[in-house]
């Protein structure tokens, strides 16, 4: 790549593992607030640890079709700076969250037939798009889509790439040179089990991306 990508590590829930990942100094750490996810955060297990994270690590709350009221409540409880909306949230919801001085990401599930016109109504309401692989449910599939399709995107809003990113396909990120990509979002390919990140694999990732 012609620039250094930001790294978001998503889907942690265990206290010690959260601290181990934080020691690697990712740009973002993602916490999933969706009950159907095996990586769903429980307040009793993680609140104190998440609140103690260094300010330079941006804390992202991942939500799926959650009410504005509950998103705001969770943001305040966990001291989140960023919200990632992974469901069918409207541009209006995004705009109302931005008014609260939050960084807002809107996720889209992408396959070969994805129509990037879908993104247009969100262009003035979010800080970033997240392009993930379309599949059953809302992410965490560990599968990639054909990244070449991102060349059809108008690049007006910066984007983070998610979906099956691993140590084995990092070199393929070269395909995205010249596009408005700002970072990558890693999850299941760097886990021992859902919610438990493999620190050794993450260390290798950080070395390769930050080199």
From TrEMBL:
<comment type="similarity">
    <text>Belongs to the TrpF family.</text>
</comment>
<comment type="pathway">
    <text>Amino-acid biosynthesis; L-tryptophan biosynthesis; L-tryptophan from chorismate: step 3/5.</text>
</comment>
<keyword id="KW-0413">Isomerase</keyword>
<keyword id="KW-0822">Tryptophan biosynthesis</keyword>
<dbReference type="GO" id="GO:0016853">
    <property type="term" value="F:isomerase activity"/>
</dbReference>
<dbReference type="InterPro" id="IPR013785">
    <property type="entry name" value="Aldolase_TIM"/>
</dbReference>
<protein>
    <recommendedName>
        <fullName>N-(5'-phosphoribosyl)anthranilate isomerase</fullName>
        <ecNumber>5.3.1.24</ecNumber>
    </recommendedName>
</protein>
<dbReference type="InterPro" id="IPR011060">
    <property type="entry name" value="RibuloseP-bd_barrel"/>
</dbReference>
<keyword id="KW-0028">Amino-acid biosynthesis</keyword>
<dbReference type="InterPro" id="IPR001240">
    <property type="entry name" value="PRAI_dom"/>
</dbReference>
<feature type="domain" description="N-(5'phosphoribosyl) anthranilate isomerase (PRAI)">
    <location>
        <begin position="8"/>
        <end position="207"/>
    </location>
</feature>
<dbReference type="InterPro" id="IPR044643">
    <property type="entry name" value="TrpF_fam"/>
</dbReference>
<keyword id="KW-0057">Aromatic amino acid biosynthesis</keyword>
<dbReference type="Pfam" id="PF00697">
    <property type="entry name" value="PRAI"/>
</dbReference>
């Amino acid at each position: 790549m012609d620039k250094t990508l930001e790294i978001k590590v998503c889907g942690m829930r265990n206290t010690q593992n959260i601290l181990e990942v934080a020691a690697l100094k990712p740009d973002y750490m993602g916490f999933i607030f969706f009950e159907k996810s095996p990586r769903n955060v429980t307040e009793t297990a993680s609140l104190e640890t998440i609140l103690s994270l260094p300010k330079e690590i941006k804390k992202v709350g991942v939500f799926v079709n959650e009410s504005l009221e509950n998103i705001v409540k969770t943001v305040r409880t966990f001291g989140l700076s960023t919200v990632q909306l992974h469901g069918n949230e409207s541009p209006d919801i995004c705009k109302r969250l931005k008014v609260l001085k939050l960084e807002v990401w809107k996720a889209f599930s992408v396959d070969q037939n994805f129509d990037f016109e879908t993104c247009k109504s969100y262009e003035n309401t979010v800080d970033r798009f997240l392009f993930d692989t379309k599949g059953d449910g809302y992410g965490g599939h560990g599968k990639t889509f054909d990244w070449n399709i991102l060349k059809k995107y108008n690049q007006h809003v910066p984007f983070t790439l998610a979906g099956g990113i691993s140590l084995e396909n990092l070199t393929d990120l070269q395909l995205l040179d010249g596009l408005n990509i700002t970072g990558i979002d890693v999850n299941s390919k760097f886990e021992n089990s859902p919610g438990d990140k493999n620190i050794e694999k993450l260390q290798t990732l950080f070395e390769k991306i930050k080199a």
